[in-house]
């Protein structure tokens, strides 16, 4: 489910993996007032390079993309199948790509690749509001009289029938 939560002065939301590319999932977070988006990825700059800046520009929010690293050595050789997989794998299976974009879409911290490091940036909520003076995807341009998104938060199962 897409929820945005209060964390200090910020309304924080997040999505994982390809959910970050889903316009309706993002829109539901914007409508909840998200102004800090956390995008979690399995690992690869090819995932984070473009979408991080796009989400920031679209939402006028800060975006932190968190992306994993995986090296051949991480597979290990404790079992025959691990050894076979490791022998046929490239040195880096997941190259990272963690980064931070400002609410204007500019890099605060550009994507980090093939390196384990802690990324830090100072973010200022006032910048979100300044950017939203130009465009607010859930504000003055939203046009709920023309289009509307409904978010269903009811628990579902495969049959669509909830247990008693």
Describe the overall structure.
With 164 residues, the protein is of the alpha/beta class. The strands form two sheets. It has a six-stranded mixed beta sheet, with helices on one face. Strands 5-6 form a two-stranded antiparallel ribbon. It contains five helices and eight strands. The model has no long low-confidence stretch (mean pLDDT 91). 29% of the residues are buried.
Concise account of the structure shown:
This protein has 164 residues and is α/β, with parallel strands linked by helices. 28% of the residues lie in helices and 22% in strands.
Please trace the helix and strand order, writing H or E for each element.
EEHEHEEHHEEEH
Q: List how many beta strands DSSP finds.
A: 8
Ranges where pLDDT stays below 50 over 5 or more residues in a row are: none
Number of helices: 5
Which percent range fits the helix content?
A: 25-40%
Kindly name the structural category: alpha/beta
Shape: globular
Distance between the ends = 21 Å
Work out the strand percent: 15-25%
Question: Which oligomeric form is depicted?
Answer: single chain
Tell me the major beta sheet.
Answer: 6 strands, mixed
Provide the descriptors you would attach to this structure in a database record.
six-stranded mixed β-sheet; 164 residues; alpha/beta
Topology:
Elements: E1 4-7, E2 10-16, H1 23-31, E3 36-41, H2 45-59, E4 62-67, E5 69-71, H3 72-75, H4 80-87, E6 92-95, E7 99-101, E8 107-109, H5 125-134
Parallel strand pairs: 2-3, 3-4
Antiparallel strand pairs: 1-2, 4-7, 5-6, 7-8
């Amino acid at each position: 489910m897409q929820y945005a939560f209060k964390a200090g002065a910020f309304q924080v939301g997040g999505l994982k993996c390809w959910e970050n590319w889903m316009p309706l999932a993002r829109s539901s977070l914007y409508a909840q007032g998200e102004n800090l988006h956390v995008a979690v990825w399995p690992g690869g700059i090819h995932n984070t390079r473009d979408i991080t800046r796009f989400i920031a520009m679209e939402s006028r929010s800060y975006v932190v993309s968190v992306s994993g690293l995986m090296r051949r050595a991480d597979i290990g050789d404790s079992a025959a199948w691990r050894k076979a997989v490791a022998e046929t794998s490239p040195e880096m299976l997941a190259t990272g790509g963690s980064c931070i974009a400002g609410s204007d879409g500019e890099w605060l911290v550009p994507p980090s690749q093939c390196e384990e490091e802690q990324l830090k940036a100072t973010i200022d909520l006032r910048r979100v509001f300044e950017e939203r003076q130009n465009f607010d995807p859930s504000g003055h341009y939203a046009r709920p009289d023309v289009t509307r998104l409904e978010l269903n938060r009811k628990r579902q199962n495969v049959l669509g029938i909830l247990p008693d």
